[in-house]
Design brief:
alpha+beta
């Protein structure tokens, strides 16, 4: 599947928000170029006049797409699926995005970013219920057990990711990682309060409902 391969720091600047697309680098103010106000990434911002309702809705959609690393067609498919489910469409949409396998590894703390998660999955290092899954968009279910092939679990990179996750101690309640065994389990479906980024999902619903 196509994937954005350009510089990601300029995406943060475009949205005016740290999207944490570079993992641990984003947590270091000395290394995060978004924090460098003297020489921020990307082109200089254009002067803004009155912002239209459509522009606000579009920017919100673009922000969420960039946070989760999905492109337009896939994002639209998620919305259509969310719209046909019972419940609130916006919350259904966020739940589908949270349940992606790449996001799940990131939430558990085994990867420092969703991009790194996709790398692990694409190289066949990730197991779901002891079966290899190499599709980043795979939807996890309650009770699913996540593990890794020994080749990855014994690397310094995994140790660094786990130490970072332990220091931050911020994995949501819907996942239960076991850092000593390099495993994790899906305890429940993600809820709206588990999304830790400032997202206005109703604005996206209004955009697609026109």
């Amino acid at each position: 599947m196509a994937r954005y391969t350009g510089p990601v720091c300029k995406l943060c600047r475009r949205e005016g928000l740290k999207l944490f697309l570079k993992g641990s680098r984003c947590l270091n103010k000395d290394k995060c170029s978004f924090e460098d106000r003297k020489n921020p990434p990307g082109p200089p911002p254009k002067k803004k006049g009155k912002i239209s309702e459509y522009s606000t809705q579009l920017r919100e959609k673009q922000k969420v797409k960039r946070i989760y690393g999905v492109l337009e067609k896939q994002f639209r498919d998620y919305f259509e699926k969310a719209n046909h489910q019972e419940g609130i469409t916006g919350e259904n949409l966020l739940q589908l995005l949270e349940r992606r396998l790449d996001n799940t590894l990131y939430r558990m703390g085994f990867a420092s970013s969703r991009a790194q998660s996709r790398n692990f999955i694409g190289h066949g290092h990730v197991l779901v219920n002891d079966h290899k899954v190499d599709i980043a968009s795979y939807q996890v279910k309650v009770g699913d057990k996540i593990s890794f092939k020994e080749k990855l679990s014994k690397t310094d990179l995994m140790d660094q990711n786990i130490k970072l996750a332990q220091s931050l101690n911020r994995h949501p309640a819907w996942v239960t990682p076991d850092y000593t065994k390099f495993t994790g389990e899906i305890a429940s479906l993600p809820a709206r309060e588990h999304v830790d980024m400032p997202i206005k999902e109703q604005v996206i619903v209004e955009l697609y409902s026109k």
